């Protein structure tokens, strides 16, 4: 009898899953399949990233780990040198595919690769010339005796960053074609190989920042190179970058939208990649580890939401190109319901966070509960504004976002320093929360106006 009931329940579950993946608009079906696959892949990536934190801290120490995190944040600033071409390609590629213009899509891909290769080559040469004169020990607020080691580390990290800068464009193409699960698989492999290499390092060497930098920088690049070669010679052969299809005249089409994305990227870097630098200057590298670990736990919620929303950017582009506003409205409503569920999940994590940190990190890092509260609020508010940003990005209505992100970027650093001095790490977290709240309110108003065909002036640009 029990077996019969179990079999009936199993069949029912299978039917529900089948209906979920096969019923609805073709655009929705594709998005749901990618979301399900991404949950599995990114779920594994989250587990690996959580294992990496204590493993890495034990390999070096909390202070050195804070140095590594801050250096990584500084190098990440150079990602803005794509001048918005990545996001421009994402929208233009999706539009071309929606209209059945595959050759145009290949032109966009080839032209973007060519332009980015030229840009990053110049940037790399300039960095290699300037790096010997940079005092990394002062930039990272550490002892002068580490200056030589940090200079070598910065050079290694930057070289691999430049390679990743180019080869990660394959993930942009996959995501633009509403296949982000495949792009997520690259991140999973990169994290897995990094975990394996660092585990080997813990058994064969003593803590070494240079070895750590090579392990965490080289493995993702290796995965992206192999993946690019595979996809552009198989499933995406018709979109493979080729000198024949490089047409710099099309750069203007990419740049018309890409320039706005470029400015948004710069401001976003100030918002998201300066916190570690501010923390290390105000409180020292060790507190960067405390700040990052607290963020890392609650970012699990953000990662879950990202899995759901990533396929929607290009899906919104497709829906808007086909004037399917009903689908957009229905999807937005579903995202808001998911947001409510994630609030409950965030509260649950907050309640058990002291036990999670103890089990996860032992006595290596102490996380104040006040910081956990601040991070939980930051995540909830951040997700709310992301719901609307993804739609606005997908349909290219980003002029208001451009202004808001610039204003937030200008305010962020002085406000974070002021609140940081008053409230410590909680104050720095509060800065991002307040800015997210302001942008979330404005972008939700803009979204409502657009989908109800009532947007005029700046609201519709």
Give a description of the structure.
The longest helix has 37 residues, at 285-321. Mean pLDDT is 82; it is low at 1-13. The chain has helices spanning 2-22, 26-59, 62-76, 85-98, 102-130, 136-139, 147-167, 169-176, 180-204, 209-231, 251-273, 275-283, 285-321, 325-361, 369-395, 399-423, 425-451. With 461 residues, the protein is an all-alpha fold. α4 runs antiparallel to α5, α8 (169-176) packs antiparallel against α9 (180-204) and α13 runs antiparallel to α14. The chain is globular, with a radius of gyration of 23 Å. It contains 17 helices and no strands. The chain has one domain.
Short description:
By secondary structure, the protein is an all-alpha fold.
Number of helices: 17
Are there runs of 5+ residues with pLDDT below 50, and where?
1-13
Q: Major sheet, described briefly?
A: none
The level of helicity is over 70%
Overall mean pLDDT stands at 82
- The SSE string, one letter per element, is HHHHHHHHHHHHHHHHH
Class derived from helix and strand content: mainly alpha
How many discrete domains?
A: 1
Count every beta strand, where a strand is a DSSP E run of 2 or more residues. 0
Question: Kindly, what is the distance between the CA atoms of the first and last residues, rounded to a whole number of angstroms?
Answer: 63 Å
- What coarse outline follows from CA principal-axis ratios? globular
